[in-house]
Amino acid sequence: MQDTITKTPKLEDSRILYEDDEHQYIWFGWEEEEGTESFVQTNQCLILNHDQGYFFDPGGTYVFHHVLENIARYVNPRQLRYIIATHQDPDVCSSIPYWMKATDAELLISRLWLHFVSHFGLEDVSRVLPVPDGGVRIKLNSGDELLMIPAHFLHSEGNFCIYDSRSQILFSGDIGAAIFPHGERYLFVEDFQQHLHYCAGFHKRYMHSNRLCRMWAERVAKLPIRMIVPQHGAIYAGEQVGQFLSWFRDLKCGGDYAEQIYANERF
Ligand SMILES: [Fe+2]
Ligand SMILES: [Fe+2]
């Protein structure tokens, strides 16, 4: 496979977001090559708990070799217990056939996408576990839990966020995503109003409707959350978490703009 993505030298490509004697939460960020517009930048996360690994969202085919190399700096890929895909998009899991060969992990993905991931080239789905709409609790060896929390229609019909009870970090998939101009990327959100320039447009079109945003934001706000890590763009930490959740709760998007979106139809 040809590697067409290079790391941007400006920004680090991995960071330990949480660490104690039993548990590590590591962020990886991959960026498209400077000067190309073909790929959207993606974040991956790895949790290590008592020598077992939990990895999400694995990413697209073209980042596979880079991501595997980086993961291997922290854990033997054969120690990955679960690979989790928040939803079915190619930037989330088109690399899945390679990961299934490189690891012995099982893939957790919404039951809606069980028979669709095969189209990325996965012949054997015996290690693909369909997640029911209500989500799942994954017990870690330390006694902590990883929660796959429903986030359906935000933006995929079968969609989950991943909450780690030990670190209190929420991996939110495409919720909270930002797309930066080349060279403008930063790791943590510092000025929320400024950050909206990079994420508001994405949410208005890719998210379903205010009803679903509100439902999700109100449920998630009940959890103690130290950080929100989206699949694209920057991390919300500390007071930025509340800022983002209250913005998202009131967001009008998708179907709320149906008339506007269809205004220029030619048929
Ligand atoms: Fe997506
Ligand atoms: Fe995405």
Automatic annotation (TrEMBL):
Entry-linked Pfam families: ODP
UniProt name for this protein: Metallo-beta-lactamase superfamily protein
InterPro entries: Metallo-B-lactamas, ODP_dom, RibonucZ/Hydroxyglut_hydro
Gene3D superfamilies named in the record: Ribonuclease Z/Hydroxyacylglutathione hydrolase-like
Ranges of residues in domain Metallo-beta-lactamase: 41-232
Organism annotation: Allopseudospirillum japonicum
